DNA sequence: TTGATTATATATCAGACTGATATATTGAAG
DNA sequence: CTTCAATATATCAGTCTGATATATAATCAA
């Protein structure tokens, strides 16, 4: 899940798992606790796959640390993950935001593609939310239940709309 | 994670794990695959806690199924979870939406409390996003990197704003 | 100077969720 | 009468979450 984030972060700067966790935690905010039990096994996996190297760095007067550095294969992997379509999974929003964060690493053409892909996802979601309301009216549920369900959907709808406006204004800027 | 959803769903109607999964899948949409490997252990847990009973139901000409029915203790648990403050975890948004869906089961006073709690969460997030931008300007990162990071934050900001408007208009309706 | 606290750094664990697959029964379509 | 879809449950590997444990070094107060 955090593969692309970690590789993107290492593109310009090597760092320890401790610092990687700290930066990631700052980005995701209070809602998710970024855990060492995730970072270190992830580093291990990326290392075994040949995407990063792990080197013991001993600074005088400091405890030693394992510094992760991206390899050439890792840079290719980063590009692959940037090109790859974002899979429909619970981390989709996070994955898009990581891609956006790394826009300065890729060509303008690819940027527009990613933005359009995100736009399509939002449009599909809008369609699916409208459909949900239609479906609910057909299935027999009680009136207050139905009202609440529609109301909850309307929250998602306004958020989708806000995101769409953001994408459209971003696409305009990128066209300039 | 899905405890409140399941109990809320059983408040008016008993059902099998198969149907529960189907309804939940429809609600969460394409982004998350609701798994049997989650539903059945969850039913087992709720059963062992005394919140639901599981009864074999054999309809003629159909294969038998285990139907979950909420108990009195389960109804108390449902109320407890509705009153309980929503914890800061990755499922926060989902938990609020489940609470909203079950508004017809609770008193108007509690509805307003939940909406205000959600509003506070959104306001705190807005503050934290503004702070992130300030912090970024202080730490030395490259210009394009900074620009992208700010741009990503602006997406979250417009979505927070849309949600806040939704909450405020909802609070007005509930005050009528 | 010593003692306590905080920051850096890594490891490990139980519990839970995801996505997938396996298996069995019944109904419907052709 | 056979294939396909729908209903129904079980199980599994891999991964993430939240928490705790451990160790070293720096800082700051008494």
In the CATH hierarchy, the architecture of the largest domain in chain A is Orthogonal Bundle
Provide the CATH topology of the largest domain in chain A: Arc Repressor Mutant, subunit A
Number of domains of chain A: 2
The top-level CATH class of the largest domain in chain A is: Mainly Alpha
The tally of helices of chain A reads 7
Structural class of chain A: mainly alpha
Helical content of chain A stands at: 55-70%
Oligomeric state, counting identical vs distinct chains = homodimer
Choose one word for the global shape of chain A: elongated
- Report the C-alpha radius of gyration of chain A, rounded: 21 Å
For the report, how would you describe the main beta sheet of chain A?
Answer: 3 strands, antiparallel
Strand line-up across the major sheet of chain A = 1-3-2
CATH superfamily of the largest domain in chain A: Winged helix-like DNA-binding domain superfamily/Winged helix DNA-binding domain
Number of strands of chain A: 3
Task: Write down the overall mean pLDDT of chain A.
Answer: 91
Spans where pLDDT lies below 50 across 5 or more residues of chain A = none
Write down the secondary-structure element order of chain A. Answer: HEHHEEHHHH
Strand content of chain A: 5-15%
How would you describe this protein?
Two copies of one chain form a homodimer. By secondary structure, chain A is mainly α. In chain A, about 70% of the residues lie in helices and about 10% in strands. Chain A is built from seven helices and three strands; from the N terminus they run αβααββαααα. The first copy, chain A, has helices at about 5-10, 15-30, 35-50, 70-85, 90-100, 110-140, 145-175; strands spanning about 15, 50-55, 65-70. Chain A has a three-stranded antiparallel beta sheet with strand order 1-3-2. In chain A, α2 crosses α3 (about 35-50) and α6 (about 110-140) runs antiparallel to α7. The two termini of chain A are about 35 Å apart. The interface of A and B includes residues 92, 152, 158 and 162 of A. Chain A binds a DNA duplex (30 and 30 nucleotides) through α2 and α3.
């Amino acid at each position: 899940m955090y593969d692309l984030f970690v590789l993107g972060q290492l593109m310009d700067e090597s760092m320890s798992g401790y610092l990687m966790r700290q930066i990631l935690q700052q980005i995701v905010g209070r809602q998710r606790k970024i855990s060492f039990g995730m970072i270190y096994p992830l580093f291990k996996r990326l290392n075994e796959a040949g995407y990063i190297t792990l080197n013991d760095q001993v600074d005088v007067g400091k405890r030693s640390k394992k510094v992760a550095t991206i390899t050439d294969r890792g840079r290719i992997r980063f590009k692959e993950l940037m090109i790859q379509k974002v899979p429909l999974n619970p981390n989709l929003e996070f994955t898009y935001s990581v891609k956006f964060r790394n826009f300065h690493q890729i060509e303008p053409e690819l940027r527009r593609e990613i933005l359009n892909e995100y736009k399509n996802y939002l449009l599909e979601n809008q369609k699916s939310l409208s459909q949900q309301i239609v479906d609910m009216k057909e299935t027999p549920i009680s009136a207050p239940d139905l009202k609440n369900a529609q109301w909850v959907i309307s929250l998602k709808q306004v958020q989708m709309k806000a995101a769409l406006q953001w994408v459209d204004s971003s696409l305009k800027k990128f066209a300039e």
